[in-house]
Amino acid sequence: MNPFENEPAEGERGLSTLRRFYEAEGAYLAAEGGDFSLIAATLDPECVIYQAASLPYGGVWRGHSGFEAWMKAFTREWSSLEVRGSEFYPHGDVVVSKSHVYAIARATGRHLDWPVLQFFRLRNDKILELWPFYWDTAALLAGREGSLSREIPVP
């Protein structure tokens, strides 16, 4: 008999980590740079986040200090963020999430919402890699600046 037969895969165990991550991210933004330790508790020390280069907070951010720097850059853009309707698809050490983001642009006060897919790789129930895939970054940027003349299309 396999002793690990009834043990959930790492991705399935990591679902609580992702839920805590989303909650901590929202709390951090609401406090305009709150307690990063709540987010750090969900991150592997060697974590990497890959953001679309076209975004003001785009690039590759490494480690807890890099992730915190990204959060500060992200907080400069968004005064509020809530991730809703998340569906998680775990497989081994990977979880893909399909969610809808509701946010308020700090510069304009404009309320925006958009779909996002996120690829998470976990190690020891912590986030090792995060790759967010936005549906339409051009519309997201235009909406943030107040120049979007239509809603961000939702598939």
Overall description:
- This protein has one domain (10-145): Nuclear Transport Factor 2, Chain: A.
- It contains five helices and six strands.
- The protein has helices at residues 10-13, 15-30, 36-40, 63-77, 137-145, and strands at 43-51, 59-62, 78-91, 94-105, 111-123, 126-134.
- A six-stranded mixed β-sheet has the order 2-1-6-5-4-3.
- It is globular, with a radius of gyration of 16 Å.
Summarize the structure.
By secondary structure, this protein is α+β, with helices and mostly antiparallel strands. The chain has helices at residues 10-13, 15-30, 36-40, 63-77, 137-145; strands at 43-51, 59-62, 78-91, 94-105, 111-123, 126-134. The chain has a single domain (10-145), classed as Nuclear Transport Factor 2, Chain: A (Roll).
Essential attributes:
Nuclear Transport Factor 2, Chain: A; 6 strands; 155 residues
Secondary structure topology:
Elements: H1 10-13, H2 15-30, H3 36-40, E1 43-51, E2 59-62, H4 63-77, E3 78-91, E4 94-105, E5 111-123, E6 126-134, H5 137-145
Parallel strand pairs: 1-6
Antiparallel strand pairs: 1-2, 3-4, 4-5, 5-6
**Distance N terminus to C terminus?**
45 Å
Which shape, going by the Cα principal axes? globular
Q: Please give the count of helices.
A: 5
Strand order of the biggest β-sheet? 2-1-6-5-4-3
- What is the CATH architecture term? Roll
Proportion of β residues?
35-45%
